[in-house]
Amino acid sequence: MKSIKTVLLVEDNAGDARLLREMFNEYDTHDSELTHVTTMSEAEAHLATHAVDIILLDLGLPDVHGLDAIRRAHAAAPLVPLVVLTGFDDETLAAKALQEGAQDYLIKGQIEPRALLRALRYANERKRLERLKDEFIATVSHELRTPLTSIRGALGLLTSGMLGDVNEKATHLLRIALTNSDRLVRLINDILDLERIQSGREPLAFRAVQLADIVKQAIEDMQPVADAAGVKLLHDTTRVEITGDPDRLLQVITNLLSNAVKFSPPNSPVSVMLRPGVTGVILSVIDHGRGIPADKLEAIFGRFQQVDASDSRQKGGTGLGLAICRTIVLQHSGRIWAERNPVRGSTFRIFLPYLPVPVPVQGGTPEAETDHGTVILADANSESRSRIAAQLARHGYSVVQTSTVEQTLAAARQGAHAILVDTSLDGMNGWAILPLLRRLDTAARTPVVLLSVEDGNGAEALPGGAQGRVPKPLEEDALLTELARVLCGSGGTARILIVEDDPDLAQMISGVFARGDIAVQIAHSLKETIDACSEFAPHLLVLDIGLPDGDGFNVVDWLREHESLAHLPLVVYSGRDLSPAERRHLTLGPTYFMAKTRVQPQQLEALVLTMLRSLRQTHEAVAPSPVPNS
Ligand code: ADP
Question: How far is the CA of 319 from the centre of ligand 1 (A)?
């Protein structure tokens, strides 16, 4: 068969398999190689290690049936054409099979050998066209990212008040524009995410994981949203270890929680339950909200499928969340489905089988060192304190938690890089702690950031002794940026070189760093970057990958050749997703990676300032010496 060299036959009936093999031997003039397996687990194992040109799939296998068989085969090898060859002569099932990614649905005994071989060739061609269409969608989405990032960033800066006052009417319009550009960003991110996960370009990183820990983190991440909606999150602490990709599983659970909260009325609970069984564990997310009509329980897992057409607009969704969840669960050889609760609301269940732990592969992604320093967190409310502490710890800070003035002063005596004080600490006005801290030798110059309930828009002066303020309810970005700002402190002018070919985006990023002790220069091309490294001698580079006369890899290769620049801190701020190998290639000194639309400019600022600060600590603001132009 032309262009079909290897066929994987997934068939548990030995007689059917023998017939098929004989048929291939007799009629296939191109001598394709036929591999035969009898279960889906064997098929998945084979597909993980072998290249296959086409899959011939029976739907009644010992370990999986019907549509789930197609879904699992498709998830295991998303780029390989799939032809169903089954005894079930069922038109409805056939239509669904095609919707789930099969290229054809053939009935055993009803198709003669030559027609079957021809069907395989056509299936191959159909799959090729489908791939082209997916690539087109991905390219369009990528191309939308850069201009959209500029628009989102500019609107964010304008509404933040950093650039001065804007009148009320304009503020209102800006907020509408901001909300809608956020929607667009979410949509594009989800399209790209789904495409990336389904294409199999980024294989899952399987390891042994404690499911209860992932559930706990998902709940922590969703807590602010649930608080705002007045929904109570309850979780199960049953310990159960499985093999999986923790980041992807977190994404699934967070998505289900986010939906449950979105569609729940205030004061109702959303709970997560873990039930370990013999072959795997069932995780359930139970809500008491609007519920899902019986005829939509399956459809909502499709792309852009909503119960109510107005859901995406009113509830801020994209309609892709559950499609992403299903793909991830299938890649774990699991199952996900929705049920109606007997009284009210819905339950989403995931079955995850216990899989063997894979042998670790050598040479993982080098993670940037994260030790941003010690922060004292003084907050009398234990719930909000542990939430903030968890956020800070995730971003590389060591956190010392205190709940009284006494404890805070004691911790400050031990020394810290910054102190965060809730203004209602210990019943006493948190500000009153400031003079006490200033009297301590060890903390006289430690920056203090106030966490205050009033709107800290900067209009009121900061009380003496405080360097910053973050308004409550706390937004993670605002907190990290403020912390990075005060920690960066002053220590001579820091020079940042922004390498970005899109002039609008470059200007927007440099706008974020508008402050006295930072000098920013922009380079739009590889040549300008090399010139700037010689003349401007940056302390840090913000690097885009695509450049008109080369790319970010060329920049890094050039830097690597110059001793004084070979360890330059980098923030790779790129529009496309980078593979682990590409990330390794781009790592010089401390290196961080950010996807353009995934991070807001303020997050970029926080990261860069944090990096500059650790740089100052290690080198005491010694700039790399300029290198001769080469
Ligand atoms: P979205 O981004 O729109 O939330 P999803 O794929 O996550 O996309 O969900 C698809 C649709 O399924 C939602 O728009 C909603 O109509 C319905 N849905 C999902 N979860 C729930 C739930 N817990 N309760 C009621 N409806 C839900």
Answer: 7
Pocket flag, ligand 1, residue 286 (CB < 6 Å): no
47-79 pLDDT tens trace: 988 889 999 999 999 999 999 999 999 988 988
Band (513; pLDDT cuts 50, 70, 90):
confident
Q: Is 178 helix (H, G, I), strand (E, B) or coil?
A: helix
Rounded Cα gap, residues 102 and 57, in angstroms:
9
**Coil, helix or strand for 447?**
coil
- Per-residue pLDDT of 121-179, as tens digits, reads 999 999 999 989 888 888 888 888 888 888 888 888 888 777 788 898 999 999 899 88
Say yes or no: CB of residue 263 within 6 Å of ligand 1. Answer: yes
% of the chain beyond a pLDDT of 70: 89
Atom of ligand 1 nearest to the CA of 317: 2
Ligand 1 atom nearest the C-alpha of 289 is 24
CA distance 272 to 347: 10
Confidence of residue 363 (pLDDT cuts 50, 70, 90): very low
Cβ 244 under 6 angstroms from ligand 1: no
**DSSP character string of 13-82:** -HHHHHHHHHHHHHH-TT--EEEEESSHHHHHHHHHHS--SEEEE-SEETTEEHHHHHHHHHHH-TTS-E
How far is 203 from 247, CA to CA, in rounded Å?
Answer: 12
Rounded Cα distance, 182 and 205, in Å: 29
Q: Helices 526-535 and 552-560 sit at what angle, rounded to 10 degrees?
A: 30
Task: Report H helices in 87-112.
Answer: 91-99
Give residue-wise pLDDT tens across range 103-133.
Answer: 999 999 888 888 888 999 999 999 999 989 8
Query: Is residue 102 within 8 Å of 84, Cβ to Cβ?
Result: yes
Evaluate: CB of 301 within 6 angstroms of ligand 1. Answer: no
Which residue has a Cα nearest atom 4 of ligand 1? 317
Judge if pTM exceeds 0.90.
Answer: no
Return the closest-CA partner of residue 479 out of 368, 573, 582, 379.
379
Question: What span, in angstroms and rounded, lies between the C-alpha atoms of 606 and 198?
Answer: 32
CA distance 531 to 520: 15
Q: Which atom of ligand 1 is nearest to the CA of 301?
A: 6
Which SS3 state, helix, strand or coil, does residue 372 take? coil
Q: How far is the CA of 218 from the centre of ligand 1 (A)?
A: 18
Pocket probe mutation, ligand 1, options 288, 290, 300, 325, max atoms within 8 Å of Cβ: 300
What pLDDT is recorded for position 579? 73
